[in-house]
């Protein structure tokens, strides 16, 4: 029987691990299928306090993990595939093996959103990607498309312009969610051009198992055009990873955990941390802070129960 199992190993999970380990609760962290979370997919992080020169995302999250391990946190590969939160102790199924725990911190984050086109799904890994950092290198001197109008799309467009011969940002409207500074950087980048009010209707060519082009539609004029492309990158936001808790923890209609104040979920003893609950701030620093809050709540919860 564990005192606390932390599900997820991004900033939120790792910070919760540091705090619960230092409180002598011997946390077990289930790393999940995207170990390290969103930071492991990014490059330079310039806004995490304490690093005046910036720090690489994967290094930052790896440092947090080491720090947690230093205080006795254990990390386990794999994902939680099933959960029973209806009674205590809670039961979690990790890749087929059930374990029991007095408390749970859900720090499962949010995963990349896809357009949902059949061709897109069939071409993932064959020219379609949701991770510029992982796959940008393969498109040296090639034509690249980035879909999205938020900070991620701007960051990816800039990053991919290091590799591609040209980068086209495709966005479904004229207004951007991206911050001014990020947008300005991309506007000043001569390799990047924008196609606004435009949606992707189809990605070619599934029969060749390779991205060769796209069919685009201008949502204002209805004009349809095709464009050659080699690398197709999605940056259209994220979906919270709460599927295994469906019906057990209260969520909003999109699946984000509804906070009951602090780090509390609708199930006493189950706490939330990070992007799985936060659709507003979604920063490394806010996820870490949420991990800290969840850990402190776990400590107090266990103490109140006499453990
Ligand atoms: P986001 O801000 O939610 O933006 C998602 C973008 O994708 C929006 O422009 C949205 O269009 C578009 N989109 C969503 N679904 C779509 C669909 N089905 N088809 C076409 N377009 C679609 O997500 P994000 O860019 O990933 O950013 C998430 C958070 O992380 C933000 O708070 C952001 O500031 C932060 N972030 C910060 C940095 C940084 O500071 N270095 C870098 C990356 C991300 P609409 O606008 O029309 O809805």
Give descriptors for this structure.
307 residues; alpha/beta; 7-stranded mixed β-sheet; 5-stranded parallel β-sheet; 19 strands; binds NADP nicotinamide-adenine-dinucleotide phosphate
Summarize the structure.
This protein is an alpha/beta fold. It has helices at residues 11-22, 57-70, 118-122, 132-135, 151-160, 180-187, 284-304; strands at residues 2-7, 28-30, 44-45, 55-56, 74-76, 80-84, 90-94, 97-106, 110-112, 128-129, 143-147, 166-170, 192-195, 198-204, 213-218, 224-228, 231-234, 238-240, 270-272.
Report on the structure:
With 307 residues, the protein is of the alpha/beta class. Helix content is 24%, strand content 27%. The chain is built from 7 helices and 19 strands. The strands form 5 sheets. Strands 1, 2, 5, 6, 7, 8 and 19 form a 7-stranded mixed sheet that branches. Helix 1 (11-22) packs parallel to helix 2 (57-70) and helix 5 (151-160) runs parallel beside helix 6. The longest helix is centred in the C-terminal third of the chain and has 21 residues, at 284-304. The termini are close together. The mean pLDDT is 95. The site of NADP nicotinamide-adenine-dinucleotide phosphate has 17 residues, from helix 5.
How are the SSEs ordered, and which strands pair?
Elements (H helix, E strand, L loop, with lengths): L1 E6 L3 H12 L5 E3 L13 E2 L9 E2 H14 L3 E3 L3 E5 L5 E5 L2 E10 L3 E3 L5 H5 L5 E2 L2 H4 L7 E5 L3 H10 L5 E5 L9 H8 L4 E4 L2 E7 L8 E6 L5 E5 L2 E4 L3 E3 L29 E3 L11 H21 L3
Parallel strand pairs: 1-2, 1-8, 2-5, 8-19, 10-17, 11-12, 11-17, 12-13
Antiparallel strand pairs: 3-4, 6-7, 7-8, 9-18, 14-15, 15-16
NADP nicotinamide-adenine-dinucleotide phosphate binds next to helix 5.
């Amino acid at each position: 029987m564990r005192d606390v199992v932390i599900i997820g190993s991004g900033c939120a999970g790792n910070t919760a691990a540091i705090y619960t380990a230092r409180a002598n609760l011997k946390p077990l962290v289930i790393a999940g299928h995207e170990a390290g979370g969103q930071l492991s997919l990014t490059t330079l992080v310039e806004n995490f306090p304490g690093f005046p020169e910036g720090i690489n995302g994967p290094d930052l999250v790896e440092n947090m993990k080491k720090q947690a391990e230093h205080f006795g946190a254990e990390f386990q590969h794999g994902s939680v595939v099933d959960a029973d939160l209806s009674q205590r102790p809670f039961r979690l199924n990790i890749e087929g093996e059930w374990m029991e725990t007095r408390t749970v911190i859900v720090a499962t984050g949010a995963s990349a959103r896809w357009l949902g086109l059949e061709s897109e799904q069939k071409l993932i890994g064959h020219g379609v990607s949701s991770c510029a950092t992982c796959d940008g290198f393969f498109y040296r001197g090639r034509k690249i498309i980035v879909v999205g109008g938020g900070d991620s799309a701007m960051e990816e467009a800039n990053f991919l312009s290091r590799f591609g011969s040209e980068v086209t940002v495709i966005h479904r409207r004229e207004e951007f969610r991206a911050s001014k500074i990020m947008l300005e950087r991309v506007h000043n980048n001569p390799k990047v051009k924008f196609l606004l009010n435009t949606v992707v209707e189809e990605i070619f060519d599934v029969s060749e198992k390779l991205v060769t082009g796209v069919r685009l539609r201008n949502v204002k004029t209805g004009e349809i055009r095709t464009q050659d492309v080699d690398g197709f990158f999605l940056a259209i936001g994220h979906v919270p990873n709460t599927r295994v808790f469906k019906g057990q923890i209260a969520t909003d209609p999109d699946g984000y955990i509804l906070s009951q104040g602090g780090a509390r979920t609708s199930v006493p003893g189950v706490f939330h941390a990070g992007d799985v609950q936060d659709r507003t701030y979604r920063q490394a620093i806010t996820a870490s802070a949420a991990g800290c809050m969840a850990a402190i709540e776990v400590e107090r919860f266990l103490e109140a129960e006499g453990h």
